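Sharing a chain and its predicted structure for anyone who wants a worked example. Both blocks are below, sequence first, tokens second.
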Amino acid sequence: MKMRSNSNRQISWPVGLLSILIMAALLFIIVSSAEAQDPSQSVTDDEVNAIAKDLFCPICESTPLDVCETQACADWRDVIREKLAEGQSEEQIKEYFGALYGVRALAEPPAKGITLPVWLVPLIAIPAAIAGFVLYLRSLRQPAQIAAASGEPVSMEKDEPHEDQDPYIARIEEELRDM
């Protein structure tokens, strides 16, 4: 009986070693694939630039973050990449930069608080200007419409001077008509 147990040990020893090697290889594959799936590496430059185009460089005046080549902008783009990897939305990231650096960092100011007039004035001023222009055009057409309704031709010339007209101007107009 000792022989059998000795032969079982000889067979089980290589199988055990092979099992340990296979387990170590599987563990290595799992760990390396987990490192390769770093979430910040899965965020593309296009996703970062889609948000960066709506932010302004903190150093360069009126330069969008996606085209600025300063180190500060590169750092901001890295922050955007990290926040996207954490699962934050575009609005959350813009709110973060707006809270940290102020409204000047945003390409489009929020429609609340002190920036609300920036959004409301054009919405009120443009229709008001159009309505004023239409009323002006209608006032230009009214003398012609009144004359057309009465059947009399509209004449722009003045045949007789008005009582309140200066005699000198009336004489000049009369001479001009005679020419």
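Comments welcome. The mean pLDDT is 76.
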